[in-house]
Amino acid sequence: MGEIYITGHRNPDLDSISSAWCYAHLKNRVDPDNTYIPIRCGHMNEATKYICSRMGIEPPLFVKDVRPKVADVMTKHDAWLDPEDPVYRLVKLFEDKHASVVPILDKDNYVGLLSLDEITAFFLRENSGKRPRYRFKTENFGKVIKGEFIKKGVLEHFEAYIMTGAMEFDVYCQRLAALSPELPVLVVGNRKHHIEYAVEHQFPAIILTGVEPEGDLDVDFSGYSGTVYRSQFDTAETIRLLRMSLPVRHLLAKEPPAVSITDVFDDAKRLLADSDFRGLPVFEQNRYVGFVTRRCFLERPRKKVIMVDHNELSQSVDGLEDAEVIEIIDHHRLAAEKTRSPIYIASEPVGSTCTIVYHQFLRWGVPVDAQSAIMLLAGITADTIILKSPTTTDIDRAAVRALCISASISDYEEFGKQLFSNASILTAAEPKRVIESDFKVYAEHGVRFGIGQVEVTTLENVDEVKDRYLSNLETVRNVKGLDWALLMITDVIKEDSVLLATDFPRYEKALVYPFSSRGKFLMPGVLSRKKQLLPELLRVLEEGR
Ligand SMILES: [Mn+2]
């Protein structure tokens, strides 16, 4: 089951958001084997927020970039251990699960990661140098060694050598004297004197081997405060398992650096490669969620992405060059990257990507539900300015007619006006946000310029806000390193626009649009940035060269 993102362009407009949302809706219906997730790579404009809240739909998820992340490759813990669990269980996990790393969790709290390295270090420590002392946990005897407690001692944890009572009593006493003052865990058969000596000297534990449950053990343990455990195994096997009963927390040594699920694949890979660790713990907002090992980074995953309402890498979500584009649904000029495999492209020179998404419903034979119909209508309406923009085609008009029926909308004009009245934000919103919410940058004839466009329902208050907008345009021009920054304000009811522009004396005088006041030009009947304003600017730039 794959996860596929559907994204519109940067500074997403209503057409981008609607087409991503509706296409995901359609694809999830026709391809249940995958999950299609509409995303956006920028803030939504006012009209988009309005239609989403009116329709009660969850706006597309904001995704900053589509580079592979730790979340895409990490191992979620299907097996973990408590810090008090015996080493025996850890070794078994490595053996059974072929795990290279096992997380140690105290309830849900992360304690550490244990790998084969720590096991190796444990056995190295045990088998090099002096006779090893072990840090036992009484409770664990029962988890590792088949048998039962005859008596549980007062000490839950203790540290001791292991010793067997296999020799004659006087030799036994000599050996113990040599260990003194240490008291060992005694592993012993049914040897009355040996056991009584251990009881008398309060050894921390006595592990009995070769003693029958109902046997003839004739020792009084009443004054003994240590543990007595009856093993069902022979002495050699009992000792082996005893050493494996230590709590795994004693194996934890150095703490590996942590990574976050949102960390970029390459960064986490480098961090691990530069470290001495086999695995790194992964956190999501301070909560442990899994780990990554070297194996996780062998193959670099590529996020699958469908581009809608754009097809150029430079206009898309960050990291797309690292992803796999599997479809393009768009109505702009084609300047897509080369692809590795054949992909589906639906490119039509129509007024809105939502018109093409509507055609996809027809193509798959899926009836358009009312909610999708309204979202598609909203996208077409915004992009074609209520079908008035010169980019509008008869195909868009036909789509609107059909979608109005599906959406039970009888007055399309009214639907459009409502959509734009909610976008009337000149006075209410931050000028910088209005300018940047739909701002396109071009570089032609050696001039870098950018044009913002905003739709309103009246131009009456433009003079009131003009100075604020001009100074914000100047800021945007500086920040983006442009020669010229312009904002086209379009009255969608009267079908007129005005143009606000930063000073650019060499060219602004050549504009065909009537000068109104400093930085402001009138554009009667002009609705389209792409088809009307842009060609005029290109003419001026070319002739002014
Ligand atoms: Mn569009």
General description of the model:
The structure is a single chain. The protein has 545 residues and is of the alpha/beta class. It folds into three domains: 2-68 and 302-421, inorganic pyrophosphatase (n-terminal core) (Alpha-Beta Complex); 87-251, Udp-n-acetylmuramoylalanyl-d-glutamate--2,6- Diaminopimelate Ligase, Chain: A, domain 1 (3-Layer(aba) Sandwich); 431-543, DHHA2 domain (Diaminopimelate Epimerase, Chain A, domain 1), CATH 3.10.310. Helices cover 36% and strands 23% of the residues. The chain is built from 18 helices and 24 strands. A six-stranded parallel sheet has the order 3-2-1-16-17-18. A six-stranded mixed sheet has the order 19-20-21-22-24-23. The longest helix has 18 residues, at 462-479. It is elongated. The mean pLDDT is 92. The structure holds manganese (II) ion. Manganese (II) ion binds next to loops.
